[in-house]
Amino acid sequence: MSAIRNLRPFQAGRCHRVASRQPCVRAYAATKLYSNPASRGRIVEWYLQELGVAGDVEVVNLDMREKREHKSDWFKKVNPFGKLPAFEDGDMKLFESGAILLYLADKYGQLQTPLERARAAQWTLFANSTMTQAVFMEQIRERSMPEMFRTLDELLSQQPYIDGDSFSVSDVAVGAYLLYIPTFFPQLDLSPYPNVLAYMKRISERPACAATVAARAAEKKAEGAPAKASH
C-alpha cells in the first residue's frame, strides 16, 4: 500500500467550477460528518486531516447525553441505528467508521487497484472485529489478546506501518484502537510487544493524529474515566 497520495483537484476553502460558464460553487459543501468527541468519529476526523480535506467537511457534533440527538428522528434518516459516526456526501449517507474510512480512501484516490481496496478492507475489518474483540471482550481477552499482539508485533518488526513501508488508511483503522488501549484498559501490559509500542508512539506523533485520536485519549486519561468509545 502506498503513502497518502496527492489529492485531486479540490482544495479546502476554494471555489471550483465544473465548466467555465457554470457558477462558482463550494467544493463538497454538502459533505458532513456527524460526530461527538466520545464517538469513533474522531477516527474519521483523523483521516480527514491526513488527507488534507478536513476543511471541505462540516463536522456536526451531536449532543449524546442531554438532548440525545443521535436518537432523534431526523438523525435516524442518516443512520437508522442512531449511532455515531455517520457521514453525508450529497445524497449519499453512510454509517460505521470503517465504512466511512474506506469510502474516503477511495474517493480521494488512495485506493487505485482491486488489491489495494481489498487490503484496506482486510485491515479495517481486522480492526473492527478480530482486534477489538480480543481487547474489548473480557471473556476472551486472556486467550485471544496475547496471540493477536504477538502476531502484530512480529509484523511491525519487519515494516514501519500496518500495510507496508508507508502510512495508509489501514494505520488509521488499526492504530486508533491501539492508541485507545492504554486509556480504556490501563491494567493491560503492552511491554511484551515493543514493536507495537514503537508503532503507537510513531503514529501518535503525526500532527493529524495528535489533534484528534491522541488528543481524545489524553482527555479521557486526564478525566480518569476509562469508558469505552461509543460507535
From TrEMBL:
One of its GO terms (molecular function) is transferase activity. Residues 28-112 form the GST N-terminal domain. InterPro entries: Glutathione-S-Trfase_C-like, Glutathione-S-Trfase_C_sf, Glutathione_S-Trfase, Glutathione_S-Trfase_N, GST_C, Thioredoxin-like_sf. It comes from Volvox reticuliferus. Residues 113-230 form the GST C-terminal domain. CDD domains: GST_N_GTT1_like. This is Glutathione S-transferase. Keywords: Transferase. Belongs to the GST superfamily.
